[in-house]
Amino acid sequence: MWAILIGAALIIGGLLILFSSALGRRPSDPHRTPQGGNTLEPRRQGLRYLGISKNWPGLAIIALGAALLAVGAYS
Fold it and tell me: Where are the domains of the chain?
């Protein structure tokens, strides 16, 4: 039972780490896009913040939590 609770907490913690890295990078900057629409996205952000090299701690915590959930389910 403890393995399931700890595993669930690790998965939630890993997701929070991933969300904080994606949302907490730069403040919103209201501006117009070259296509003419308004956006709150930071300028020149790109998709680099979604790479595995930047998010490996959160992914590792989620994997550890999933392993604990699997162990707890079979014990």
Answer: 1-19+49-75
pTM (two decimals) = 0.71
Identify the pLDDT of residue 26: 64
Max distance between CA atoms of the chain, in angstroms, equals: 58
Written as six digits, the tokens of 17 are 């780490």
Q: List the one residue out of 52, 67, 74 whose CA is nearest residue 10.
A: 67
Residue 45's nearest CA partner among 59, 31, 58 is: 31
38 φ, ψ (degrees, to nearest 5): -90, 145
Handedness of CA 30, 36, 41, 46 (dihedral sign): negative
